[in-house]
Protein backbone atom coordinates (compact mmCIF):
# COMPACT_ATOMS: atom_id res chain seq x y z
CA UNK A 1 0.00 0.00 0.00
CA UNK A 2 2.68 2.48 1.00
CA UNK A 3 4.60 1.52 -2.13
CA UNK A 4 1.56 2.45 -4.11
CA UNK A 5 1.29 5.80 -2.37
CA UNK A 6 4.94 6.42 -3.15
CA UNK A 7 4.34 5.53 -6.77
CA UNK A 8 1.37 7.89 -7.04
CA UNK A 9 3.36 10.61 -5.33
CA UNK A 10 6.32 10.29 -7.65
CA UNK A 11 4.07 10.37 -10.70
CA UNK A 12 2.43 13.51 -9.32
CA UNK A 13 5.80 15.16 -8.73
CA UNK A 14 6.91 14.25 -12.22
CA UNK A 15 3.75 15.62 -13.80
CA UNK A 16 3.90 18.91 -11.87
CA UNK A 17 7.56 19.15 -12.77
CA UNK A 18 6.75 18.84 -16.46
CA UNK A 19 3.89 21.32 -16.18
CA UNK A 20 6.19 23.84 -14.52
CA UNK A 21 8.92 23.34 -17.07
CA UNK A 22 6.36 24.05 -19.77
CA UNK A 23 5.35 27.29 -18.10
CA UNK A 24 8.85 28.68 -17.71
CA UNK A 25 8.98 32.48 -17.29
CA UNK A 26 10.60 32.65 -20.73
CA UNK A 27 7.69 30.83 -22.33
CA UNK A 28 5.13 32.80 -20.36
CA UNK A 29 6.81 36.02 -21.46
CA UNK A 30 6.72 34.90 -25.08
CA UNK A 31 3.01 34.04 -24.86
CA UNK A 32 2.21 37.46 -23.43
CA UNK A 33 4.34 39.11 -26.09
CA UNK A 34 2.57 37.22 -28.85
CA UNK A 35 -0.87 38.18 -27.59
CA UNK A 36 -0.20 41.78 -26.46
CA UNK A 37 2.79 43.19 -28.33
CA UNK A 38 3.44 41.34 -31.56
CA UNK A 39 0.57 43.05 -33.35
CA UNK A 40 2.77 46.16 -33.42
CA UNK A 41 6.26 44.71 -32.88
CA UNK A 42 7.00 42.01 -35.44
CA UNK A 43 9.76 39.52 -34.67
CA UNK A 44 11.17 39.07 -38.17
CA UNK A 45 13.37 41.42 -40.25
CA UNK A 46 11.23 43.48 -42.62
CA UNK A 47 11.51 44.75 -46.16
CA UNK A 48 10.92 48.47 -46.81
CA UNK A 49 7.52 47.63 -48.37
CA UNK A 50 6.49 45.68 -45.27
CA UNK A 51 7.81 48.39 -42.99
CA UNK A 52 5.40 50.92 -44.44
CA UNK A 53 2.50 48.85 -43.08
CA UNK A 54 3.83 48.28 -39.58
CA UNK A 55 2.21 49.81 -36.49
CA UNK A 56 5.45 49.92 -34.51
CA UNK A 57 9.18 49.20 -34.86
CA UNK A 58 10.22 45.52 -35.22
CA UNK A 59 11.20 44.17 -31.81
CA UNK A 60 14.79 43.46 -32.92
CA UNK A 61 15.28 47.17 -33.56
CA UNK A 62 13.65 48.11 -30.27
CA UNK A 63 15.84 45.72 -28.30
CA UNK A 64 19.03 46.84 -30.06
CA UNK A 65 18.27 50.36 -28.85
CA UNK A 66 17.27 49.28 -25.36
CA UNK A 67 20.40 47.15 -24.92
CA UNK A 68 22.65 49.90 -26.24
CA UNK A 69 21.35 52.18 -23.49
CA UNK A 70 20.79 49.49 -20.82
CA UNK A 71 23.27 46.63 -21.28
CA UNK A 72 22.46 45.20 -17.84
CA UNK A 73 19.38 43.00 -17.64
CA UNK A 74 17.82 44.56 -14.51
CA UNK A 75 18.06 48.08 -15.92
CA UNK A 76 16.66 47.07 -19.28
CA UNK A 77 13.76 45.22 -17.64
CA UNK A 78 13.02 48.21 -15.38
CA UNK A 79 13.06 50.54 -18.39
CA UNK A 80 10.75 48.34 -20.48
CA UNK A 81 8.25 47.79 -17.66
CA UNK A 82 8.12 51.51 -16.95
CA UNK A 83 7.88 52.39 -20.64
CA UNK A 84 5.02 50.09 -21.54
CA UNK A 85 2.94 51.44 -18.65
CA UNK A 86 3.94 55.08 -19.09
CA UNK A 87 5.21 55.73 -22.62
CA UNK A 88 6.47 59.26 -22.99
CA UNK A 89 8.37 61.38 -25.45
CA UNK A 90 10.97 62.13 -22.77
CA UNK A 91 11.87 58.45 -22.41
CA UNK A 92 11.86 57.38 -26.05
CA UNK A 93 15.02 55.66 -27.27
CA UNK A 94 13.85 54.78 -30.79
CA UNK A 95 13.88 57.51 -33.43
CA UNK A 96 11.10 55.52 -35.06
CA UNK A 97 8.65 57.52 -33.00
CA UNK A 98 8.68 59.92 -35.96
CA UNK A 99 7.34 57.14 -38.17
CA UNK A 100 4.86 55.49 -35.83
CA UNK A 101 3.96 58.03 -33.17
CA UNK A 102 4.03 57.32 -29.44
CA UNK A 103 3.22 53.83 -28.22
CA UNK A 104 -0.12 53.58 -26.40
CA UNK A 105 0.10 52.68 -22.69
CA UNK A 106 -0.35 48.98 -21.92
CA UNK A 107 -1.34 49.71 -18.31
CA UNK A 108 -4.83 48.28 -18.74
CA UNK A 109 -3.68 45.33 -20.86
CA UNK A 110 -1.29 43.50 -18.57
CA UNK A 111 -0.18 43.23 -14.93
CA UNK A 112 3.20 44.32 -13.58
CA UNK A 113 4.19 40.67 -13.24
CA UNK A 114 3.28 39.97 -16.85
CA UNK A 115 5.18 43.06 -17.94
CA UNK A 116 8.26 41.85 -16.07
CA UNK A 117 7.99 38.41 -17.67
CA UNK A 118 7.76 39.98 -21.15
CA UNK A 119 10.64 42.37 -20.47
CA UNK A 120 12.89 39.59 -19.15
CA UNK A 121 12.07 37.39 -22.14
CA UNK A 122 12.74 40.29 -24.53
CA UNK A 123 16.15 40.90 -22.98
CA UNK A 124 17.06 37.22 -23.23
CA UNK A 125 15.69 36.67 -26.74
CA UNK A 126 16.14 39.78 -28.89
CA UNK A 127 17.72 40.96 -31.06
CA UNK A 128 17.69 37.62 -32.86
CA UNK A 129 19.59 39.11 -35.79
CA UNK A 130 22.82 40.66 -34.60
CA UNK A 131 23.87 43.98 -36.00
CA UNK A 132 25.24 43.21 -39.42
CA UNK A 133 28.34 45.14 -40.30
CA UNK A 134 29.72 45.73 -43.79
CA UNK A 135 26.41 45.12 -45.49
CA UNK A 136 25.42 48.61 -46.51
CA UNK A 137 23.20 47.49 -49.34
CA UNK A 138 21.14 45.21 -47.16
CA UNK A 139 17.58 46.53 -47.18
CA UNK A 140 16.30 43.89 -44.79
CA UNK A 141 18.88 44.93 -42.22
CA UNK A 142 17.55 45.00 -38.66
CA UNK A 143 19.10 48.41 -38.27
CA UNK A 144 16.29 49.71 -40.44
CA UNK A 145 15.62 52.95 -42.20
CA UNK A 146 14.88 55.19 -39.26
CA UNK A 147 17.96 54.05 -37.42
CA UNK A 148 20.23 54.63 -40.36
CA UNK A 149 18.83 58.06 -41.02
CA UNK A 150 19.71 59.11 -37.50
CA UNK A 151 23.42 58.73 -38.24
C1 LIG B 1 -0.61 49.53 -30.71
C2 LIG B 1 0.75 49.25 -31.05
C3 LIG B 1 1.71 48.82 -29.97
C4 LIG B 1 1.57 47.79 -29.06
C5 LIG B 1 0.38 46.86 -28.86
C6 LIG B 1 2.81 47.73 -28.33
N1 LIG B 1 3.68 48.70 -28.77
FE1 LIG B 1 5.56 49.04 -28.09
N2 LIG B 1 5.76 50.59 -29.39
C7 LIG B 1 4.81 51.00 -30.31
C8 LIG B 1 5.33 52.13 -31.06
C9 LIG B 1 4.59 52.86 -32.14
C10 LIG B 1 6.63 52.38 -30.58
C11 LIG B 1 7.63 53.44 -31.09
C12 LIG B 1 7.37 54.78 -30.49
C13 LIG B 1 7.68 54.82 -29.02
O1 LIG B 1 8.83 54.51 -28.65
O2 LIG B 1 6.78 55.15 -28.24
C14 LIG B 1 6.87 51.41 -29.52
C15 LIG B 1 8.03 51.32 -28.77
C16 LIG B 1 8.31 50.37 -27.82
C17 LIG B 1 9.52 50.29 -27.05
C18 LIG B 1 10.72 51.24 -27.18
C19 LIG B 1 10.54 52.50 -26.41
C20 LIG B 1 11.58 53.53 -26.76
O3 LIG B 1 12.34 53.92 -25.88
O4 LIG B 1 11.67 53.98 -27.90
C21 LIG B 1 9.41 49.21 -26.23
C22 LIG B 1 10.45 48.70 -25.24
C23 LIG B 1 8.12 48.61 -26.47
N3 LIG B 1 7.48 49.35 -27.44
C24 LIG B 1 7.66 47.47 -25.85
C25 LIG B 1 6.37 46.95 -26.03
C26 LIG B 1 5.87 45.78 -25.32
C27 LIG B 1 6.68 44.94 -24.36
C28 LIG B 1 4.58 45.63 -25.72
C29 LIG B 1 3.60 44.59 -25.24
C30 LIG B 1 3.33 44.55 -23.83
C31 LIG B 1 4.28 46.66 -26.69
N4 LIG B 1 5.39 47.45 -26.84
C32 LIG B 1 3.07 46.81 -27.32
C33 LIG B 1 3.58 50.44 -30.50
C34 LIG B 1 3.04 49.38 -29.77
UniProtKB/TrEMBL annotation:
Signal peptide feature range: 1-21
Residues annotated as domain Cytochrome c: 24-126
TM regions (residue ranges): none
Comp. bias (Basic and acidic residues): 135-151
GO molecular function: electron transfer activity; heme binding; metal ion binding
Lineage: superkingdom: Bacteria
Matches recorded under InterPro entries: Cyt_c-like_dom, Cyt_c-like_dom_sf
Signal recorded as keyword: yes
UniProt-recorded name of the protein: Cytochrome c domain-containing protein
Organism: Nitratifractor salsuginis (strain DSM 16511 / JCM 12458 / E9I37-1)
Amino acid sequence: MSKRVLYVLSVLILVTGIAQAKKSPQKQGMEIFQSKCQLCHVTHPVTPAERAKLLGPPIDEVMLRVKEKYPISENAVAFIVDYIFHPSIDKVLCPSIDTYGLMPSMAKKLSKKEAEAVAQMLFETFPVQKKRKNRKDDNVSVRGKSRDSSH
